[in-house]
Inverse folding.
């Protein structure tokens, strides 16, 4: 067991070194350490130092936060809905965020700026999620809620398609770029907000890990143990949404990490205990996000590939594996 | 009961078949019997279209309607009521009677050509009035038909234009021309933005002129542009050679979510910068037309030391507007030097920028602006027309 944790931490460290070391030019691990050791101000004297501190460090931090948040969020959703293919996006979180972002990018004014975009995406994600919560009150079955989330996603996608008809080509291109996902758009100025929201989400997730374990045994069993299943479901949905909405607001919708990592982690750790799986998922998710981002640079050869294309290419085999295994 | 169904089916089929145009509108009735003489145009800079003159008609070919297009767009422009030879109809052309009298433009970049050819009174509709910069056109009650992806085909059909000018991207989702062609409306595909030189781009005025029989006017206008452009370019070259002065280095465009799209070496922007006596970092990247996606750190590493930075976002009025968007712009040397110029001096409140409208047909004026920015001693009296310096 310990060995697997060490392996996961090593994997993450390797991914960090790869991510910080690759880009317009490679920076060797030894130089990385020197430049990092010199700190933000002094490190920026050399060009490598400037590039490291201005671009690569914030991007790596964003990738770590995004990857871990999406993975934990996905684990919560899969447990709650007892559906291996659930992820934060099936409840319309991503669609809601996209709608908010599109409103700002396509119709809104430039004065709304980065924060307007982040705020609108977050509000859209939370808005759809609250709608789901409201419906959750009325629907006892988690599966029905899942279907509601899917349908809500379709409805929002339809509104989005109509909205895009009114946008100028330049703005639509901007929206397309937002929706292809990226860790590179977040700067030091925006980073603390993302860190606080993600940190809060992770803390909540760890607190809710034990109740999640109980829910794993069925809602009736949880109820018999005295758990208030309704409020717990609500708390889990909100927690999961906070994590996913924060990531989507800052990085755009990033696919497949939320579905694939929980399965990958459960398979590697060989345990169902959510108290262990949540931090393990966060480690693997962070490593996978970092690795995917490095691949967008390495495979492109001077041209940056879209992040979502890489996460999908890495995630699809895992998801197909899940389907094949569960269909046996 | 069955009989009614048959009638219904028959009527539907009749309606569908009857409403479909043949794809070609000869409009023979408007053609004169005697052929007017038009002075033949010679295309010198533009690579995207050709014009040839024949007995009773002219043939215009748009060789690359969009990037990667498989086939050219061919137009047979009939001057008089004379039968066309079989050879003229070989490449499945659109056949039109010229001069065209009514025009709908689906891109504001086409408007300057029409205005300069004094054909703006033939303009009956545009994609969106909000996109227009020209105050005179804005005041006219022009029909709005919607742009790519949101075209109101019925409104176009009702207006019965002789031709619709549009640009294509090769995607059925965005392109307007397949629907219009299917409905029998001739579509002039304009791919001026793919030209690799600014003179080539401006020479598309001749493409518009061919549809309007205004060859003489177009040639005169273009010669003026060409002479002014080339003589200034020569002055810049002479000066650089004579004084041995340095070419300032230039970075263009801006980051969107951490990604830059910089013009490739095969773009009219790169050509403009070279002609204005500047050094463009990606001038050597000639593997593709259009722009190259690069990440921020690559741009900083390659062009962070640039003397000048041009073409920021349309709304930037000052450097603080830029930095508010992304504080990493502060790392650019041009920002530290305050040598940042934006091509938005002529922008209306709604964002419509004359640089992309009139500027397309005034590369000589844009070159004057750029030379004033890079080599102010060469044009001491010139006041910037399209560019502005961004203050702190």
């Amino acid at each position: 067991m310990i060995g697997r944790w060490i392996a996961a931490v090593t994997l993450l460290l390797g991914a960090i070194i790869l991510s910080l070391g690759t880009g317009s030019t490679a920076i060797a691990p030894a130089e990385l350490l020197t430049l990092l050791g010199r700190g933000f101000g002094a490190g920026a004297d050399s060009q490598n130092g400037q590039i490291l501190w201005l671009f690569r460090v914030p991007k790596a931090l964003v990738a770590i936060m995004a990857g871990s948040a999406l993975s934990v969020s996905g684990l919560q959703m899969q447990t709650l809905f007892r559906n291996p293919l659930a992820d934060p996006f099936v409840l319309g979180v991503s669609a809601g965020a996209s709608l908010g972002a599109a409103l700002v990018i396509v119709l809104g004014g430039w004065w709304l700026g980065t924060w307007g975009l982040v705020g609108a995406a977050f509000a859209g994600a939370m808005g759809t999620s609250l709608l789901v919560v409201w419906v959750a009150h009325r629907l006892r079955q988690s599966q029905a809620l899942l279907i509601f989330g899917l349908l809500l996603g379709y409805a929002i996608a339809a509104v989005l398609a109509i909205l895009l008809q009114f946008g100028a080509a330049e703005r639509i291109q901007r929206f397309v770029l937002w929706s292809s996902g990226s860790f590179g758009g977040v700067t030091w100025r925006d980073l603390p907000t993302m860190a606080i929201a993600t940190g809060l989400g992770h803390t909540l997730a760890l607190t809710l890990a034990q109740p999640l374990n109980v829910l794993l045994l069925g809602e009736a069993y949880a109820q018999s143990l005295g758990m208030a299943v309704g409020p717990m479901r609500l708390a889990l949905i909100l927690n999961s949404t906070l994590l996913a909405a924060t990531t989507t607001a800052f990085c755009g919708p990033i696919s497949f990490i939320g579905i694939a990592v929980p399965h990958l982690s459960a398979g590697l750790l060989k345990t169902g205990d959510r108290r262990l799986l949540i931090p393990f998922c966060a480690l693997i998710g962070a490593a996978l996000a970092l690795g995917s981002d490095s691949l967008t640079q390495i495979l492109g050869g001077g041209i940056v590939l879209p992040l979502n294309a890489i996460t999908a290419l890495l995630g699809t085999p895992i998801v197909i594996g899940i389907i094949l295994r569960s269909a046996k | 009961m069955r009989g009614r169904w048959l009638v219904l089916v028959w009527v539907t089929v009749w309606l569908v078949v009857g409403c479909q145009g043949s794809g070609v509108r000869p409009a023979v009735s408007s053609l004169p019997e005697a052929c007017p003489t038009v002075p033949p145009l010679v295309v010198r800079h533009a690579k995207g279209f050709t014009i040839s003159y024949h007995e009773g008609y002219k043939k215009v070919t748009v060789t690359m309607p969009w990037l990667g297009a498989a086939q050219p767009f061919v137009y047979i422009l009939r001057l008089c009521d004379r039968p066309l030879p079989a050879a003229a109809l070989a490449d499945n052309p659109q056949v039109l009677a010229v001069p065209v009298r009514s025009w709908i433009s689906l891109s504001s970049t086409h408007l300057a050509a029409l205005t300069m050819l004094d054909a703006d009174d033939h303009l009956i509709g545009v994609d969106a009035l909000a996109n227009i910069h020209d105050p005179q056109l804005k005041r006219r009650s022009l029909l709005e038909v919607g742009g790519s992806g949101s075209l109101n085909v019925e409104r176009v059909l009702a207006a019965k234009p002789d031709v619709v000018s549009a640009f294509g991207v090769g995607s059925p989702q965005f392109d307007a021309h397949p629907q219009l062609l299917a409905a029998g409306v001739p579509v002039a595909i304009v791919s001026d933005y793919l030209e690799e030189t600014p003179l080539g781009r401006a020479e598309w005025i001749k493409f518009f002129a061919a549809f309007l029989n205004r060859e003489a006017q177009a040639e005169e206008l273009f010669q003026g542009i060409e002479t002014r452009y080339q003589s200034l370019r020569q002055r810049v070259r002479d000066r650089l050679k004579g004084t041995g002065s340095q070419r300032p280095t230039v970075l263009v465009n801006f980051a969107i979510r951490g990604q830059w799209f910089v013009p490739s070496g095969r773009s009219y922007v790169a050509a403009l910068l070279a002609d204005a006596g500047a050094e463009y970092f990606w001038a050597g990247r000639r593997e593709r037309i259009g722009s190259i996606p690069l990440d921020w750190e690559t741009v900083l590493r390659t062009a962070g030391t640039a003397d000048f930075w041009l073409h920021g976002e349309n709304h930037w009025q000052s450097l603080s507007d830029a930095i508010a968007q992304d504080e990493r712009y502060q790392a650019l040397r041009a920002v530290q030097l305050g040598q940042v110029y934006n091509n938005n001096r002529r922008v209306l409140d709604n964002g419509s920028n004359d640089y992309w409208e009139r500027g397309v047909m005034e590369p000589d004026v844009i070159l004057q602006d750029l030379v004033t920015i890079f080599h102010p001693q060469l044009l001491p009296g010139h006041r910037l027309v399209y560019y502005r310096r961004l203050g702190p």
In short: Chain B touches chain A through 29 residues (CB under 8 Å).
